[in-house]
Write a structure and sequence with these properties.
The chain has one domain. The longest helix is centred in the C-terminal third of the chain and has 24 residues, at 22-45. It contains two helices and no strands. The protein has 46 residues and is mainly α.
Length: 46
């Protein structure tokens, strides 16, 4: 799960490098990556 959090982060980089909207990159892909990391940490601690 923690390794899978890299995929939305990579998607955000692709959007930013192709001059896409920053709101999409950070709001959708960045937020998804943060939520996945948070869930991964919770699963590791539990």
């Amino acid at each position: 799960m923690l390794a899978a959090a890299g995929m939305p982060a990579g998607d955000a980089l692709i959007v930013l490098r192709s001059n896409g909207p920053k709101a999409v990159a950070y709001g959708i892909h960045g937020a998804t990556a943060v939520v996945m990391v948070a869930i991964s940490v919770l699963l590791l601690v539990a």
